[in-house]
């Protein structure tokens, strides 16, 4: 997948600046088959420390694969919504969370409603948070695992979308290919929520934003530093940075930076300061939040040992958190491989907020469902 326009970046270096290039390195898909990696920005000289990107030469598509912006009925990408809507959803999440915490079980907006939950890949947090949250607010969730549907194999996605629309009020899907969630939304007549694709994970980042607001007072203006693979979590952070102004830094090994088209998409919005770097130690200085994820995601486990060598120096450990400063919080979307991308000491430290973050998946998702259902 070739990039259609170059990124205009300012390069800061201890020696003479070098060029920014686009690459498309070979990798494994989450199903284990060889594919081309997302086009990525890489630094061609070890002397260059950071790419500080401010603008792009042309506007990227408003969604992946050239699809039009999602209608208001779906929650597929965070930047399908404006800042006021995103912040309104997060405010609603705080209200509904307080309602649930109060023990008052009279608020049942989902009473009489059903949700079909499609899982092409296994999950703990996504299933439990959606199912429990929908139940606590009066609804009934139906789990449809990989063997129940086999979307696109046993039955075409467009047929599944139209059938489930006649039984249910909402669909949540956790799938591999991003095109699957786009197709579900295209053919479903009810709201479709993206519970994760290989491209992005908007519900996770909404929960993360809620957690940051709870612990720091606001997201706007904060410095969030992600250390690790430029994966679907990073893409969602970039899309959030397209809507809400904050300082986002991604520190990844060369060749593992995020999708260049998504970087351009965020830069074109002109909302946030965005940096892509190969130096985690420089990246974390002055961070409000240091964020990590596994180095080998589901479907990449055959690469795990190789990635451990490539990602040496990108572990979030006590030394890195000390560089970030005493006020920096640590976040991780879980599951974590303790001793690999993060040390046990960092996860268990007082400034770790990974478990409030995990809890907030349920509350953020409840607010998202209330929004798309118009409740």
Automatic annotation (TrEMBL):
Enzyme Commission number(s) of this protein: 2.1.3.3
BP-aspect Gene Ontology terms: L-arginine biosynthetic process
InterPro entries: Asp/Orn_carbamoyltranf_P-bd, Asp/Orn_carbamoylTrfase, Asp/Orn_carbamoylTrfase_sf, Asp_carbamoyltransf_Asp/Orn-bd, Orn/put_carbamltrans, OTCase_ArgI
One annotated GO molecular function: ornithine carbamoyltransferase activity
Domain Aspartate/ornithine carbamoyltransferase Asp/Orn-binding: 220-371
Ranges where the Aspartate/ornithine carbamoyltransferase carbamoyl-P binding domain occurs: 73-214
Catalysed reaction equations from the record: carbamoyl phosphate + L-ornithine = L-citrulline + phosphate + H(+)
GO cellular component annotations of the record: chloroplast
EC supergroup of this enzyme: transferase
Biased composition (Low complexity): 11-23
UniProt xrefs under SUPFAM superfamilies: Aspartate/ornithine carbamoyltransferase (SSF53671)
Main location: plastid
Pfam families, sorted: OTCace, OTCace_N
Protein localization: Plastid, Chloroplast
Annotated signal peptide: none
PANTHER family: ORNITHINE CARBAMOYLTRANSFERASE, MITOCHONDRIAL, ORNITHINE TRANSCARBAMYLASE, MITOCHONDRIAL
Protein name: ornithine carbamoyltransferase
């Amino acid at each position: 997948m070739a990039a259609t326009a170059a990124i205009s970046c300012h390069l800061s270096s201890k020696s003479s600046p070098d060029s920014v290039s686009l690459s498309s390195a070979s990798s494994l898909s989450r199903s284990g088959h060889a594919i081309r990696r997302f086009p990525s920005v890489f630094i061609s000289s070890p002397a260059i420390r950071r790419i500080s990107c401010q603008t792009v030469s042309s506007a990227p598509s408003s969604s992946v694969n050239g699809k039009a912006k999602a209608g208001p009925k779906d929650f597929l990408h965070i930047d399908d919504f404006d800042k006021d809507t995103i912040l309104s959803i997060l405010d609603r999440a705080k209200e509904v969370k307080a309602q649930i915490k109060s023990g008052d079980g009279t608020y049942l907006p989902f009473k009489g409603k059903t949700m079909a939950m499609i899982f092409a890949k296994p999950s703990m947090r996504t299933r439990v948070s959606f199912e429990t949250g929908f139940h606590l607010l009066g609804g009934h969730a139906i789990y449809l695992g990989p063997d129940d549907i086999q979307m696109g194999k046993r039955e075409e996605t467009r047929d599944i979308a139209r059938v489930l629309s006649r039984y249910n009020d909402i669909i949540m899907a956790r799938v591999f290919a991003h095109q699957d969630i786009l197709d579900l939304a295209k053919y479903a007549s009810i709201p479709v929520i993206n519970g994760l694709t290989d491209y992005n994970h908007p519900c996770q980042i909404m929960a993360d934003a809620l957690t940051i607001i709870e612990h720091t007072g606001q997201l706007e203006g904060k410095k969030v530093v992600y250390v690790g693979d430029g994966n679907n979590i990073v893409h969602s952070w970039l899309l959030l940075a397209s809507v809400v102004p904050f300082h986002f830094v991604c520190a990844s090994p060369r060749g593992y930076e995020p999708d260049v088209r998504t970087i351009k998409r965020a830069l074109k919005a002109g909302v946030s300061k965005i940096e892509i770097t190969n130096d985690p130690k420089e990246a974390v200085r002055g961070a409000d939040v240091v964020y990590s994820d596994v180095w080998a995601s589901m479907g990449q486990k055959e690469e795990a040992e190789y990635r451990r060598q490539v990602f040496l120096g990108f572990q979030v450990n006590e030394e890195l958190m000390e560089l970030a400063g005493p006020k920096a919080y640590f976040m991780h979307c879980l599951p974590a491989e303790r001793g690999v991308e993060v040390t046990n000491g960092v996860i268990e430290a007082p400034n770790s907020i990974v478990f409030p973050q995990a809890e907030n998946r349920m509350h953020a998702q409840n607010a998202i469902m209330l929004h798309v259902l118009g409740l």
